[in-house]
Specification:
Distance between the termini: 30 Å
Number of helices: 7
Number of strands: 7
Radius of gyration: 15 Å
Shape: globular
Helix content: 40-55%
């Protein structure tokens, strides 16, 4: 399949939804319940090793494309999509200890906007948090993003989960308290 940023360059949500439908069917054929994608973060650093997975540097384009893909994936009964990497994930170097320092306005208008659009328009089965810290708090432990924004403001009803080994045993309680599992 074309990588996500190439899909976004088409500006064709019907095409991206059809790609999502095909993903959903493939995942189902492999007896997998959850597609770990679509991925969406903002292209802010050209050195981010995962930019190819992310749709755009524009949060609206990212959100609209992720919603289209999610809707397509979830047309297959029993198969869900998992939006990732939530949020402000701009680099891979030292990603478990990287601290994305961002103002409330930039967080809302740039880094969360795409996730908000996709969550509201497509209601994915899950959202996966990122490894980085957001203003000093690990993304998986961030009550403001996991619960206040995603659940309370956007009405997200699915599971919010960590990326693999994001949270160590000592702080798993913080993760759960933030609304993540």
């Amino acid at each position: 399949w074309p990588v996500s940023y190439v899909q976004a360059q088409t500006w064709d949500t019907d095409l991206v939804k059809r790609i999502g439908v095909a993903f959903g069917k493939e995942v189902d054929e492999m007896n997998i319940t959850l597609l770990l994608g679509p991925s969406q973060n903002i292209h802010r650093d050209p050195l981010c090793g995962r930019n190819f997975e992310y749709y755009s540097e524009d949060p609206v384009v990212s959100g609209v494309m992720a919603a289209a893909c999610t809707l397509g994936v979830q047309e297959t009964p029993g198969v869900g999509a998992c939006l990732k990497h939530f949020a402000a994930n701009n680099k891979e170097t030292n990603r478990k200890h990287s601290d994305s320092r961002v103002s409330e306005r930039a967080l809302r208008e740039i880094y969360l906007k795409g996730f908000e659009i996709a969550a509201k328009d497509a209601q994915p089965m899950s959202i996966m948090t990122s490894y980085n810290l957001i203003n000093g708090v690990h993304a998986a432990n961030c009550y403001d993003t996991c619960t206040k924004a995603a659940r309370d403001e956007w009405g997200f009803a699915g599971a919010i989960m960590t990326d693999w080994t994001t949270t160590n045993v000592q702080i798993q309680g913080e993760c759960t308290a933030a609304g993540c599992m």
